[in-house]
């Protein structure tokens, strides 16, 4: 029988429909279990100059290449898996957020260094106003679709200034915690008067959350290494006294010592705070 165009189209539709039905019937791929899902929100607002952007970005690169940070990630003591999932996001004004490096599994020193290289390969997409609340709103839904499961979901906000645009930072923080995020920690660069207190009141949230300061963009990387080790190991920065960091380069703004293990839960419980 000669197959006409109409017959061929109908035949293809039948096959495609059958394939789609079969695919829907397949079990969903299991999420990868890790110790922590960590989302890094880096401020690139207009107050951050080109040289300061480079220093801040390099701070993240150096941190994930650091042997002590890598050891903290890979530590399997206390029943830990020795792996985390990390996402790196640039943010500025109310409508300016970009996933620079998407969710990445770090389960080896090589994987950590590869993530560092990915960060190094990014470029600045924009600058403008300062809207950390909008950045938090942007980031929260990305936990639900990242194909990872963890006992802890943490957002890490960097910046050198208080909010001057966008969603209320404290309201966004509270909504994120209500949606299932465990902690929001902050790292700020000193300069703006009262910025530490502002981060403490508006950014920091959740059990054992903390804020840490860097004296400048040139010390940001050292402060970040300390911060990452602290949040990954479940301690406060003041407990890691072995880190060779000058005393003025960091300041703990609240937060309780110790991280209580509350059992693994499915990260799909996280919902869009909107």
Number of domains: 1
Question: Helix/strand-derived class?
Answer: alpha/beta
CATH fold naming:
Rossmann fold
Uncertain stretches of 5 or more adjacent residues: 1-6, 22-26, 241-269
**Total DSSP helices:** 8
Q: Kindly report the spatial arrangement of strands forming the biggest sheet.
A: 3-2-1-4-5-6
Give the rounded overall mean pLDDT. 84
Count the E strands: 6
Pfam families: DUF1194 (PF06707)
Keywords: Membrane, Signal, Transmembrane, Transmembrane helix
InterPro entries: DUF1194, VPLPA-CTERM, vWFA_dom_sf
Organism: Paralimibaculum aggregatum
What's the short story on this structure?
With 274 residues, this protein is of the alpha/beta class. Helices cover 36% and strands 19% of the residues.
Task: List strands and helices in order, with pairings.
Elements: H1 5-25, E1 32-43, H2 50-65, H3 67-74, E2 84-91, E3 97-106, H4 109-120, H5 132-139, E4 148-159, H6 169-179, E5 183-189, H7 195-202, E6 211-214, H8 220-233
Parallel strand pairs: 1-2, 1-4, 4-5, 5-6
Antiparallel strand pairs: 2-3
Helix pairs in contact: 2-4, 2-8, 3-8, 5-6
Q: What do these coordinates show?
A:
With 274 residues, the chain is α/β, with parallel strands linked by helices. It has one domain (33-269): von Willebrand factor, type A domain (Rossmann fold). The protein is built from eight helices and six strands, in the order H-E-H-H-E-E-H-H-E-H-E-H-E-H. It has a six-stranded mixed sheet, with helices on both faces. A hairpin with a 5-residue loop joins strand 2 and strand 3 (97-106). The longest helix is centred in the N-terminal third of the chain and has 21 residues, at 5-25. 44% of the residues are buried. Mean pLDDT is 84; it is low at 1-6, 22-26 and 241-269.
